Amino acid sequence: MVEMFAAENGLKGDPRLQAISSAIRVVPHFPKQGLLLPLFYFSFLSLILSVYDFLERPLFKWGVCFSGKKTGIMFQDITTLLLDNKAFKHTVDIFVDRYRGMDISVVAGVEARGFMFGTAIALAIGAKFVPLRKPKSCQGRVCFNGEVIAEAYELEYGSDCLEMHVGAVEAGERAIVIDDLVATGGTLSAAIRLLERVGAQVVECGCVIGLRQVKGQRRLNGKPLYILVEPREIDGCYY
């Protein structure tokens, strides 16, 4: 895997990157157990009170605190990034500037936050958007409008899978995979395998946020990874 941060690839000192980082709300030191329901309620309420109340799922992402004194998880709420129209536009524009001219015909977005960035990127570069979904059960499932193929993958605390509609991507098409955050790379790796199973050429994966400290755990099969910003680190916790 070739890891590339935007600031180290032609955007050093670009004020858009600072604006994007500052627009993401971060809450560190959340316990690993017992707070999923309150967090869900908090994120859902935040959406209800925002202009983005049409979205149906909470917008948070987990990270890890490595400090021996304070343990737990950090969640990174991109609701605030979406609410900041300038920072949101900066995010999309940077990706568009990178992928326009690469002959990309497929933008694959990972559910659900990858949908928000991926659709805008696809429209701007003239590509189709292909949703990679996370169903409750993969095996034997048929969607209301067609058959799907699935790819399972392991997470730190369990397993999950991605699904894609059969026929959505044709052999030989050039694709990129978009998500909001990469940590271990398990989800992106599954997305790559899913696209390659139908003969697509995965050119690159792009994420808004990336963690340097766990990059050795990423499993992207040698595919390039382009990251806009990395979390700030305070007291051993990504912040």
From TrEMBL:
The keyword Membrane does not apply. It catalyses: AMP + diphosphate = 5-phospho-alpha-D-ribose 1-diphosphate + adenine. Keywords: Cytoplasm, Glycosyltransferase, Purine salvage, Transferase. InterPro entries: Adenine_PRTase, PRTase-like, PRTase_dom. Residues 103-210 form the Phosphoribosyltransferase domain. It is an enzyme of class 2 (transferase). It is found in: Cytoplasm. It comes from the Eukaryota. Homodimer. Belongs to the purine/pyrimidine phosphoribosyltransferase family. This is adenine phosphoribosyltransferase. It comes from Hibiscus sabdariffa (roselle).
